[in-house]
Every structure is written in C-alpha cells, then in structure tokens.
Amino acid sequence: DLTQSKQGLASWSVNDLTQYLHTGVGARGGTFGPMNEVIVNSLSKLSVEDVRAMSVYLKSLPARDYSGPKVTEEQAKAGAGIYEERCEKCHSASGRGGLFSSPPLAGSAIVQADNPASLINVLLYGPSMPKEVSFGNWETMPAYADRLSDQDIVAVGNYIRGSWGNLGRPLTIQDVMKQR
Asked: What does pLDDT average to over the chain?
C-alpha cells in the first residue's frame, strides 16, 4: 500500500522514503525481493532530487483505510513464543527494531500489506540483499523455511500482523503454502 494509510506509508517521512528508494535501506526498512532490482538497476541511478520528488508524490496519495478482518488476540497470542524466541532479540519486544539490529515491524507496510506474500517470503527465505546495498550494522535475518513449520510461520506472522497497532488480515496455512 503506497498510500498514507496506517498499513502503507503513514509512518514513513519523505526523508525515510527518499533514502530507502535511493539506497535500498532506511530507518523504516531495507530492500529485498523484487524491490532489489528496482533500486539497484533504476532508482539508485537517479538524482536524490528526482527520488525525493517521487517520495513527495507518494506521500501525497490519500489513505486507503483497511476494513477487512483483523488478527484476533487469540491468533496473535499463538505466535508470541515463537516471536520471543526467534525475533525479539533483533526486532525488540516493542517491534521497533533498532539502528544496529533490524528494521521496525511496528507500523511496517510489509507487515500490514493486504497481500502477505512479502512478509511470508522474508520469514521463509530471509531477505535477499543485493551486494550493491549495505544494511550497515543490521544483522542478517536467517531463513526459517527449514526451521519452522507452516503453522509456526502462520502463528508468528499473525503475532507480527496483530501487535503494536499493526492492522493486517490473518495469515492462513494456504498463504504460507503458496509462498513455500
């Protein structure tokens, strides 16, 4: 969601978005998946002013409010232990991540996206970082495809999508199986 909705870019400043689009990494997230090609082969070659103009435009898009089903407290609770064991060290109990550990999950557009494919892919396969992009001191997230079952991925995904004010529809086994 590239609008100003809570599930989209509401928590991103123009500067955050400009840095991310131009370098592949910023305070709100780092590139992975198909965005790698967009940033490395295109946006990083533009001037900062041009990328900033794109960011200003994106920030001007009106919000599309999410009105679909939300992760229930029970669904979120099922993944709390997995999150604490596997994710909390880097992303923190508050989901805010850290400058030297990882990007925030609270307010993340990837976490809250209506289509959960990107979140599931990063949980299963870890972020694929291009050599041209440096995440600096952030730790590299491991892939969990061989460490967690589909049900575990659903549980931790629902914990993330239903915590810290995030709004996302509940994940299903079918969502995970499709990405696996």
From this structure: 88
